[in-house]
């Protein structure tokens, strides 16, 4: 059996907040072990789209979708899919770092404990590996019992990424993960994203086009709820096919 290069894929995806349609017939692949960037002006539907990929919009009253979101070929909106388990496999990182008001260790151990892991050594192994994978271990290994909220913003964001990694996801969705951070922390997150794609599939919303160009393999350009163009990132930035993409990436609007 050949494994599809699409880890995820949306098919004719429409999305509604009550009667307001926020997404129009989106067909977008999320390639396995690649970084896919979603770009476009404010309000074009990037975050809404990202949240459809792990059913995060389900919790907003009055929303509904049409079409399909495939994960390894299975529709995540189909009968029998458990949204809680789905959000473990397809984890999410938000714009503002949101560690729990717990110590560093307990933040990372939180998910594994919920999934029933109680053995101290096993938890320690998971915490260490997750913090290493999130490029934070060296900075925090001597203060795992200190409050997570005492970390810098950039460290908090890497801690949140470690928390996501601790439950062994396959896809990581990131909604402007570096936009609240200083340039040095931003560059650490970008380096981290680059490392993570060896083991995970990543989709990222960003306002920062230089960032999208630096870190992504594929880019989808959104405008007014439609996906105007999708291609390998280099092509989007050098020879876009649609005039609207060109106008956006050359800074004519947005
Ligand atoms: N909870 C909500 N209820 C109703 N409408 C919403 C809700 N969230 C978003 N919208 C609307 O859906 C559209 C798309 O919003 P979305 O946040 O997905 O865009 P975006 O491209 O991520 O914008 P930004 O870059 O500013 O975050 C906008 O018109 C927005 O006002």
From TrEMBL:
Keyword Nucleotide-binding appears in the UniProt entry? yes
Could you tell me which residue ranges the ABC transporter domain spans? Answer: 8-249
Keywords from the UniProt entry: ATP-binding, Nucleotide-binding, Transport
Q: By its UniProt entry, which InterPro entries does this protein fall under?
A: AAA+_ATPase (IPR003593), ABC_transporter-like_ATP-bd (IPR003439), ABC_transporter-like_CS (IPR017871), P-loop_NTPase (IPR027417), PstB-like (IPR005670)
Pfam families in the record, alphabetically?
ABC_tran
Gene Ontology, cellular component aspect: membrane
**Highest rank taxon of the organism:** Bacteria
| Protein name as annotated | Phosphate ABC transporter, ATP-binding protein
Q: Which GO terms describe its biological process?
A: phosphate ion transmembrane transport
One term of GO molecular function? phosphate transmembrane transporter activity
């Amino acid at each position: 059996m050949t494994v599809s290069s699409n880890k995820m894929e949306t098919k004719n995806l429409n999305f509604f907040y009550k009667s307001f349609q926020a997404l129009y017939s989106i067909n977008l692949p999320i390639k396995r072990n690649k970084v896919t960037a979603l770009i476009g002006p404010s309000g074009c539907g990037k975050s809404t789209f990202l949240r459809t990929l792990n059913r995060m919009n389900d919790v907003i009253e009055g929303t509904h979708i049409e079409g399909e979101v495939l994960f390894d070929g299975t529709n995540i909106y189909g009968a029998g899919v458990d949204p809680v388990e789905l959000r473990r496999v397809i984890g999410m990182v938000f714009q503002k770092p949101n560690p729990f008001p717990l110590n560093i260790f307990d933040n990372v151990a939180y998910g594994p404990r919920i999934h029933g892991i109680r053995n101290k050594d096993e938890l320690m192994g998971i915490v260490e590996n997750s913090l290493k994978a999130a490029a934070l271990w060296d900075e925090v290994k001597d203060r795992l019992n200190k409050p997570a909220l005492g970390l810098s913003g950039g460290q908090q964001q890497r801690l949140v990424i470690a928390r996501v990694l601790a439950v062994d996801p396959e896809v990581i969705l990131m909604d402007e993960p570096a936009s609240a951070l200083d340039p040095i922390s931003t560059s650490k997150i970008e380096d981290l994203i680059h490392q993570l794609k060896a083991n995970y599939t990543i989709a990222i919303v960003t306002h920062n086009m230089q960032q999208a160009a630096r870190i992504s393999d594929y880019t989808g350009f959104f405008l007014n709820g439609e996906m105007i163009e999708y291609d390998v990132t280099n092509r989007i930035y050098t020879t876009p096919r649609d005039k609207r993409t060109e106008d956006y990436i050359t800074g004519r609007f947005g």
